[in-house]
Amino acid sequence: MKQHKKALALWIVVTLALLAGALLAGSPGRAETVQEAMRDAVLHDVNQVSLFGLRPVAPGMISAFLVTAVLLLAAAAVRIFAIPRFRYIPGKLQLVLEEAVGLFDHMAKNSSPHRNGFVGAYIFAAGAYIFVGTLFELLGLQAITVHGHPITLPAPLSDVNAAIALGTLSYLVILSGGIAANGVRGVGKTLKEFSLPISMSFRLFGALLSGLLVTELVYYYVNLSFVLPVVVGVLFTLLHALIQTYVLTMLVSMYYGEVSEPGEPKKKARAAQI
Where would I find the H helices in 112-159? Predict the structure, then answer.
């Protein structure tokens, strides 16, 4: 026990020494100011990347293509190689997959007991995209901008366009549940929550962008080779990956359950009033 305490104390001392050295050494200097770095992180009007030589796009779009390709390849590999080998007594991979599917399946059934087949599949796909897409920035993959400068590819949903697209798609899924269960009345139920796609979109965008901006500030004012930027970047990324995956999937399943709940027939309702 004493050895663990000594090791922890030594680690803290070394970390503080490195941090002090970083602060004393100062920033190595950058071509752009911190305000320009913050602005470009939101608008992506400077550090754009060429899309197959066709046109310049935001780096988040390249990240979105890569994350989508990785998820599709992983899904195909699981379906072709893993699922045919599933057994009654599950192995490690089978257990992880069953727990992941069961988590979203239970969430869909609890929030939407009347119609949950499609919404369960959707929140599983959306949750996987948010989680993997958020962790994607930890890889630190590099790209070259149209101006010839290197840039680290960000998380796809740190781009406001990607966040709006996912929020709008989630709202359309909720709308489809209302129409399938209640027809035109389902449309009315869903349209009452007109601010839902905006809130979901900007919740995703704001949360992921906040982590990006905090990490950018730390990188800007502290030398890159020290401990603090890595710790801050990893903690913010893991925290946002878990929280935003849970929040969006829970909201979609909950609202889907509300609008897809069958309405009471008019005749029965009138008889009950009489």
Answer: 117-135
Encode pLDDT of 166-222 as tens digits: 999 999 999 898 888 888 887 877 877 777 787 888 777 777 667 666 666 666 665
Q: By the 8 A CB rule, do 241 and 204 touch?
A: no
- 47: number of Cβ within 10 Å: 22
Residue 51, strand partner residues: 55
- DSSP string covering 250-262, please? HHHHHHHHHHTSP
What amino acid occupies position 222? Answer: V
End-to-end CA distance of the chain: 75
Cα gap 236→216, rounded to integer Å: 12
Please name the residue ranges forming H helices in the chain. 2-25, 34-43, 59-77, 92-111, 117-135, 160-182, 184-191, 196-221, 227-259, 266-273
Q: CB count, 10 Å around CB of 20?
A: 11
Taking each continuous run of H as one helix and of E as one strand, the counts in the chain are 10, 4
DSSP 143: E
Selection from 247, 221, 218 nearest residue 235 by Cα: 218
Q: 142: how many CB neighbours lie within 10 A of its CB? A: 9
Residue 58, SS3 per DSSP: coil
Task: For the chain, give every domain's residue range.
Answer: 28-262
Rounded Cα gap, residues 181 and 125, in angstroms: 22
Identify whether the C-beta of residue 252 lies closer than 8 Å to the C-beta of residue 173: yes
Q: What is the pTM of this model?
A: 0.79
Give residue-wise pLDDT tens across range 72-107: 999 999 999 999 988 888 888 899 999 999 999 999
Using left for φ > 0, alpha for ψ between -120 and 50, and beta otherwise, residue 51 falls in: beta
